[in-house]
Specification:
This protein has one helix at 7-20; strands at 41-63, 72-95, 98-116, 122-130, 134-148, 151-171, 174-197, 201-224, 227-239, 243-254, 257-266, 269-280. With 281 residues, the protein is mostly beta strands. Strands 1, 2, 3, 4, 5, 6, 7, 8, 9, 10, 11 and 12 form a 12-stranded antiparallel beta sheet that branches.
Length: 281
């Protein structure tokens, strides 16, 4: 007799794991194949946990008390951007071999930003940009390319938007500095690989590409020798490494209901997550 994990037990397990993780989302991707079937719908919930490094290229200008100076080229580095992401999903099977889906939810991010000077050394170091939960959303598709018995080859594409809007920015070594930081960025993932179906259980994974595109706006004010000084920066965001791999597992826990968990990594990022999906006509 096939034994399946009770749905209530899985939900309890998810809550325990989520609550035990530190507040660090490469968003989860799931199996790289169509999973719904033609004209079928699905709703789901997922949690993703991420840490990654980013590069920023843009311009900065300062007002040292006598008016704004001209814009100057600036490079920044974000190390260990950490995120929690909770997403609900709605999927639809366009045909037997193609699914489409949308995401909506919320994400919380935390990071430190370091200015990189022309000689490669570190300049101003900003910290404390811990944002509250902000809206997150996205969309994507999964496709099956080839199936032979229990082995399926396929691929997926998804884009998820999230960001930071923080008014708690601080400057290392300057206790009176106060600033605002806004990050808006898209994470784009393209994956392909196999899924192996076993008895009520499957494993999946493969290589993937990870792109991050977005914008940063930074403003801050301090006081030096009785003079108010200001700084303003605008920069484009991009990933440091875009090639990675992922592996996951999926369990059938009830009819038309499955739970999955996975791990992803690139040269400068890693993410882990889990989710549950219910399919219906």
């Amino acid at each position: 007799m096939e034994k399946r994990m009770p749905l209530f037990s899985v939900i309890i397990m998810m809550v325990v794991v989520v609550c035990s993780l530190p507040a660090l989302a490469l968003p989860t991707m799931g199996p790289p194949k169509a999973i719904l079937g033609e004209n079928r719908w699905a709703i789901g919930f997922e949690y993703a946990h991420q840490k990654m490094d980013l590069e920023l290229f843009g311009k900065t200008r300062e007002d040292l008390g006598a008016g704004w100076l001209p814009w100057d080229y600036t490079k920044y580095k974000i190390e260990d951007l950490t995120s929690n992401m909770f997403l609900g999903s709605l999927g639809y099977g366009i045909c037997e071999n193609l699914d489409a889906f949308v995401y909506v939810g919320a994400a919380s991010d935390k990071d430190d930003i370091t200015e990189i000077l022309g000689n490669g050394s570190s300049g101003n170091q900003y910290y404390g940009s811990s944002g509250d939960y902000e809206a997150a959303w996205g969309f994507g598709a999964r496709a099956t390319f080839y199936q032979d018995g229990n082995l399926t080859w396929g691929g997926l594409f998804q884009m998820v938007w999230s960001g930071i809007d923080s008014s708690n920015l601080k400057l290392q070594g300057d206790p009176v500095f106060s600033g605002d930081l806004k990050l808006d960025f898209w994470e784009i993932q393209v994956a392909a690989g196999p899924t192996i179906q076993l008895d009520g259980f499957s494993i999946y994974g493969g290589p993937f590409l990870h792109f991050v595109k977005g914008d940063m706006e930074l403003e801050g004010t301090t006081v030096s020798m009785g003079t108010t000084q200001r700084v303003m920066s605008k920069a484009d965001i991009r990933e440091e490494s875009n090639f990675g791999a992922y592996v996951g597992a999926q369990w059938d826990i009830a009819e038309d209901t499955f739970w999955y968990t996975e791990y992803q990594f690139t040269g400068d990022a890693w993410g882990a997550g889990m989710g549950i999906v219910w399919k219906f006509q």
